Amino acid sequence: MDPFLFLSHILTPYRFLLILLTAPTDDAFAALPAGTVESLLLPENKDQLVSILTYHVVAGKVESTDLVNGPVTTVNGADVEINLDDGVKVNDSNVIIADVQACNGVIHVIDAVLLPPMDDGGDAEPDKPSSGDMFSKSGKSKSAKSCSTKSGK
Predict the structure, then answer these.
(1) DSSP secondary structure code for residue 33 in this structure
(2) pTM here?
(3) Strand 57-59 relative to strand 105-110, pairing
(4) What is the pLDDT of residues 73-124, one digit of tens each?
(5) What is the residue-wise DSSP string for 77-127?
(6) What average pLDDT does this structure show over 42-51?
(7) What 3-state DSSP class applies to 30?
(8) What is the pLDDT of residue 81?
(9) Residues 146, 9, 7, 22, CA torsion sign
(10) Burial label, 41 (beta-carbon count in 10 A; 0-12, 13-18, 19+)
């Protein structure tokens, strides 16, 4: 299974929203215990992989200048903690490259893979964005056009 194709499939419901994606580096993935990535790519672990991937996504285009200290709800439904006291941190990871512009949002590169809080047996399905998720702290709409593919579709 191609993880990039899988991520694209997972994020399909959000293709018309601007999003913030925190993207771990290759070194961040390499720092995971041996076999973790391979295990997550197994079909029986799909729900866990979806939970981790959607924990890296926030509905809305959030640039570094928009960030404030405190919790931010991810597409997963769980919160990440933003801390600006010493650089920019998302939970325990550091933002090492900020504000990489994409056609449907912005990417902040982080130095660790974010792991969501352990599920207490509830629904593993990520939350769908509500209309409230489509607005910035200023109340401006965050809707966006769909990204074009190379073929223009």
Answers:
(1) P
(2) 0.70
(3) unpaired
(4) 998 999 999 999 999 999 999 999 999 988 778 889 999 999 999 755 444 4
(5) SSEEEEE-TTS-EETTEEEEEEEEEETTEEEEEESS---PPPP-SS--SPP
(6) 90
(7) helix
(8) 95
(9) positive
(10) middle
